Amino acid sequence: MVKILFVCTHNSARSQIAEAYLKQMAGEHFQVESAGFEPADLNPLAIEVMAEEGIDISHKKTQSVFNLYKTGKLYDYVITVCENGREAECPVFPGISKRLHMPFDDPSALSGGKEERLAKIRRIRDQIKDAVNKLVLELD
């Protein structure tokens, strides 16, 4: 089974969304987790827009990429989903055969009223869904 880790800054939205979609689309073929460099609480708007898709991420806990590394976890792919993830010092995960970068806008940086932010995060969610679908097709 292919092991994949999605990484972003806070593990509060983008990496959680990517993890949820990959589990939904091809969870029987992939073991998938997500983590952040500076874990924070889940973004409530991310929870809301994923619920619109019938996916409940409200129970998910954020986790540190460094803690996963310290436990000796091994991954076939580490995929960063934000610009910060690409620039930050990412720990070296032994056994990685590929590092991929799929950047998306940061939902925590969105401005405007709630409905405006929801519209923007729906766009990000849909971009992530498309990217994960392409990833499944490429890795299948």
UniProtKB/TrEMBL annotation:
* Entry-linked SUPFAM superfamilies: Phosphotyrosine protein phosphatases I (SSF52788)
Question: What Pfam families is this protein classified in?
Answer: LMWPc
CDD domains reported for this sequence: LMWP_ArsC
Q: Which UniProt keywords apply?
A: Arsenical resistance
Domain annotation Phosphotyrosine protein phosphatase I: ranges: 2-138
One of its GO biological process terms is:
response to arsenic-containing substance
Annotated Gene3D superfamilies: 3.40.50.2300
Stated name of the protein: Arsenate reductase
Native source organism of the sequence: Dethiosulfatarculus sandiegensis
